[in-house]
What we know:
heterodimer, A: mainly beta, 23-stranded parallel β-sheet, 13-stranded parallel β-sheet, elongated, disordered N terminus, B: 23-stranded parallel β-sheet, 2 helices, about 5% helix
Amino acid sequence: MGIGRVLLTAAALAVAASAFAAEGVTEIDQPRALAGGINGSLVDDPPGFPVVITFPGSYRLTGNLTLPDGNTTAIQILVEDVVLDLGGFEIRGPNSCSAPPVSCTASGTGFGVQASTADVRVANGTVRGVGSTGVLVGDRGRVERVLAIENGGGFGGGNGIDAGAHCLISESVAERNLVVGITGGRGCRIERNAARQNGYGGILAGDAATLRGNTTGANADFGLSAGSGSLATRNTALQNGGTGITVLERGQLRDSTAMNNGKCGLAAGRGSLVAGNVSFGNAISPLHFMSPEAESGFEWNSIGQGVSGFSFSVQSGAVPLDLDHNHCLSSSGCGATPLTTGACP
Amino acid sequence: MSRLPFALLLGLSLWPATAPARDGVIEINQARARAGGITPGDTPNFPVQITTSGSYVLTGDLASSTSAIEIFADDVTIDLGGFELRGPVSCGCCPASCPAPGLSGGVLGTTQNYVRVSNGTLRGFDYGVALGGRAIVDRVHVLETSVYGIYAGPASLVEDSSVRVGGSTGILVFAGSRVERSTAQNELGDGIAGHDGCILTGNKATDNGGHGLYATTGCVLEGNAARQNSRSGVYATGNALLLGNTETANAQCGAVVGPYSLLRANTTAQNGIAGMRFLAPGATTAIGEFVTNEPFPSISFPTPSDGPSFEGHSIFGPLHFGTSACD
């Protein structure tokens, strides 16, 4: 090892030592990001962005991070079991995105937080204007109280918050991101978030997810969409360009409101239970059953499109199995109207 | 020069000119407010002007004869640190008696988005906390405001907070916002009001001069309690979902529900005009309601044909058809 490398490593260790707060939390700010060696090694974390985290533990932003371009990632996490407290601060890139139809000025390959590893928690701050996805965490990731705004870019990236399977995403806001505001994998809980004006959809979840207490509005396409076996409850979908709330087969869509969406208010797959919802003023249908098989339940809803409109729609002649105690604003009562394939969602 | 020293020098040059507290959070207290310079452009004395995004914390009470804190940047986090902001307004109670509205605010930033305010008390301003969209107001307690206690733009979250004794609406939030586990008491206007697509959950609204809770189209109201308000306990203009709310002893109706709504397992009792009032056209479904409103009407609707579809209910008290002061 040359003398230069020794001095470099010693300096990095000094930097890293100073980065530890009293509680054992490693602090991150712009100077430390530029200095590198956040975990004590300039080899693992060279000077400049991204800050590369290679040890499990707790980290906290102590200042805003400003990225030079859309291709730069702010924080890259390479290990499991990391807690990153954004401390009320902001990771800020140069990207700026419009309201739908969303277009961005500085799309690229840079993330705000990039963690493909499991068991990473990111909380309490803002990620705004990065070139690709705002916050990416792997399986069992937790994202809480994060504002993800105007992120988006190339190579298919551009979600506000993107988490793997069995995640928890709560009390966060995603707005004007290029693709989807919030997306979680199989078995995720996505609760009490708001997603607005995103370039494709508001909230997208995989199979067996729970979506509870979210509000969505003015997204270019769907408001909320969840995979098979999911529960979507206590959500609102307002003025989205596509369908308000969708659950695929064997899901539950309950106790939600869908108003003035551009396609259907609610949509459910085969064998789903649709109960206790309010859906009015949607352009195509207040409620659409997507499967031609008659296995779905449709109970205690209050829906309508207008006196002259139809009450609910079915795809290719499907009829819900259990049709009970609904109120339908329609001249024909609660009767099914067939729709062509693909009309909703 | 090696790359590392250069980076370190660059880093040092980027330290903010203002004095940061621990963890890079900028401290605000009375002395610093008087001195000014908390952020670039902040002039001495009140209001403290926050012009840069970041994280701020109160380290002492603030007393101001004008606004206390004004925000001119997005993405600002303010931890009130358990302290109190005290302004120039004083209201009597009860009912609330406040001076003519002015423009002072405890934390004022209605044109700024993504602002978070938490953990403290504001007393005696025209506006307690007034923020733009996507705000978070958490554990904030507001007293004696001549206008709004807490005001937040679209897609905001207000939780675990309270407003007491004010001259207008206690908590007002706009489309797609949520108000959860919060309390509004002794406001001259409505206690808590939410606009389209809102979610109001687990709140208490008592002794307000208007409605306890007011919601425009497409809102979800669940597990709220409205008691002894001068108008109705809950007023939902339409397409609402009311789940498990309790409305008792309100001067007008327990719940007023607009067209094409859905109700389940709500309880109303002892309200002055009617337990539940359904606005025309009716077309509302109610399931498992418990309405005991004797001697006043239990259920009220404009004409018999406007009546809701009822299932599994327990209703005590006469029905009423015709106009209603609750409308």
